[in-house]
Design goal:
Length: about 325
């Protein structure tokens, strides 16, 4: 595995960190890889059981993957209906009747490959004894909640925010402030880890989080080669880079959350989970407080923050 020369191996020990925010896709779960592997299984099925040539089978599955990635969700119809339609669109005329069956098989394989590895489950359980944990994910409501539900991610997190449930998406600082607000922690006590510099890292920096950690995609890790941290533009420059989410715990400073201070008393079950699920109810509850988010947090930079506030003051999503 190539390394990023000059990457910081451990975050500043003087940081006061109580909370860790995870990006979902390609950070906690290997979405791109799992979707591609599931499509490859469908291609095998088309070739083996439905008389497709290997070439046509691969082309059909690849076309589905492209269409799915372009538009994984259509809010006007149910997920199953939308994705079956995508299969129908890419199947040749003689085989369009297979669309629903292929969608079912693809979904089954998808979640088999997306499942959290045991080591990641253990990492989250261990981290949660010390820190508050959150997910901040960009994406359409139904598609993101399907992943969260099917992978049973609820049980590991104190806070789960899906951008389409809210008026903002990463890198808008307000989605980070909303997560901080939900958990009652200042931004300077939070670490954000994610795979996208322009959303996870830039947003974390602009929100003045305590630290940001970049987990490049495997393809990017191969390209990175001999580049150094100084080669990354300052507005998206993370505090640390890891090649696996499992490397995160070793670089964290001791927790300052109530869990870290009183681990024996910190029963996970005592803490009410905050999510943007059922957005009508949740949204109405959070909405009156939204105008306060920026003024509350923009002046509360943590003394230990490594970031200067070089961002503009726009509250709009980009
Ligand atoms: Mg991601």
């Amino acid at each position: 595995m190539s390394t990023f020369r000059g990457a910081i191996k451990r975050l500043n020990c003087d940081l006061k960190i109580s909370t860790i925010f995870f990006d979902l896709d390609n950070t906690l779960i290997a979405t791109r890889k799992a979707d591609a592997k599931a499509c490859s299984k469908v291609a095998d099925l088309l070739h083996r059981e439905h008389g497709f040539s290997r070439e046509l089978a691969n082309e059909t599955a690849t076309n589905y993957l492209t269409a799915f990635r372009r538009c994984p969700d259509n809010p006007d119809v149910a997920l199953a209906q939308w994705r079956s339609q995508l299969w129908q669109d890419v199947l040749p005329g003689t085989h369009k009747h297979l669309a629903s069956e292929l969608y079912g098989r693809w979904l089954e394989w998808r979640y088999r490959y997306l499942a959290l590895p045991v080591e990641v489950q253990t990492m989250l359980q261990t981290l949660r004894l010390q820190y508050l944990l959150g997910i901040i994910t960009n994406g359409p409501t139904a598609a993101q909640w399907e992943k969260i539900d099917r992978l049973a991610l609820n049980k590991y997190f104190d806070c789960i925010l899906v951008s389409s449930d809210l008026p903002w998406a990463k890198p808008d600082r307000n989605i980070f402030y909303a997560a901080c607000h939900y958990l009652g922690v200042p931004p300077g006590q939070c670490v954000m880890i994610g795979d996208k510099l322009e959303t996870d890292i830039q947003g974390g920096i602009e929100a003045n989080l305590g630290a940001t950690v970049w987990l490049p995609l495997p393809t990017e890790q191969r390209i990175i080669g001999d580049r150094t941290m100084q080669d990354v533009p300052e507005h998206v420059r993370p505090d640390a880079i890891v090649d696996s989410v499992l490397k995160l715990p070793a670089m964290l400073p001791p927790s300052t959350s109530f869990r870290g201070r009183r681990p024996a008393e910190a029963e996970v079950g005592d803490w009410e989970q905050k999510t943007t699920r059922n957005r009508a109810a949740q949204y109405n509850r959070i909405l009156p407080e939204i105008p306060d988010l920026y003024s509350t947090y923009s002046s509360s930079s943590n003394d230990c923050s490594q970031h200067s506030n070089g961002s503009n003051s726009s509250n709009n999503s980009s």
